[in-house]
Structures are given as C-alpha cells and as structure tokens.
Specification:
This protein is mainly α. It contains six helices and no strands. The two termini are 30 Å apart. Pfam families: DUF805.
Length: 166
Amino acid sequence: MNKLKKTWNFLFGFKGRIGRLHFAIFLLFFIISLFVFNTLAYVFLQVLNSPSTIKNFSVYEIIFFAAIVLVLVVLVTIFKYSHIVRRIHDYDKSFGNSGLGITIALLEIIVVFLSFARIEYTLLLGFISLICLTSLVFIKGTKGENQFGAEPIPFWKKHNITQKQE
C-alpha cells in the first residue's frame, strides 16, 4: 500500500520539488500524449459527424467512450499541473506567485474557450503555452533546501540507504 501511495504522489502529487531533467522527461511524455489525445478526439468527431457510422453505435456506447476520454483528460491535466507546480517549487516560488505558472494556466483556459471559435488562435496560444512549459526546463532550481523541501536528488544518484554495504 505504501508503494502505491508513493507512486501516486510521484505522478500526481503537488508537494515537493522536481528537477529539470525530471520535468524534461515529463514534457516529452506530455507532448506525445497531446498527439495521442488529438488523434482520439479527431476519430471521435469523425464518428459523430458521419451519419452512416453513428447508426452502428448506441447512445450508451457513445456516452461510455466520451466518459473514458473525459477521465483521461482529467488525469492528464492533474498529471500536467502537478509537475508544473513541483517544478515551480524547485526555484522557490508557489504556483500563484509565479508569473510563468499563471501564464500557462490562463493560456490553457483561453484555449479551451477559443477552441469552439477559431482553430488558428488555439494553435497560436497552444504554441505559446508550449514555449512557457519548455522554459521551465531551463530555469535552475535553488541550491539546498527551500520552503518546499529538500533539493531533488537525480534519479541516477538515488540509492537505498538501508541496504547493507558489502
């Protein structure tokens, strides 16, 4: 149970700090997941817009598929913002006091509302948001401990202290 809780906090937790490499790996995963979700959304919209294929699905199947997509979007959003918040914590700022964090959140909110209007604006704001996310990779964290915890240890240096040295 403790291992499951630790894994959950590692993926979806909002406390603590993460380093630049950890965030860069997350960003790569996030960009790949954007392509996957966009493909799924495209397929779903094609199915909904095609009168011949929509007859093959019941209302319950369409609602079930939409619910799965909604759950995945919520999980990816929590995953994304947990990493953004912890990365901002690494350079000793809270999400609300970081101009970069607020900019990313506002851009995402605007993109959601504009996605119903014009695709050009959505793409432009999405690109600006990606630049802001990428800039988080290059901002150095504070050395030593700060108000959000100890300095993150790189994953290649982590070792179990309780193991006996032989």
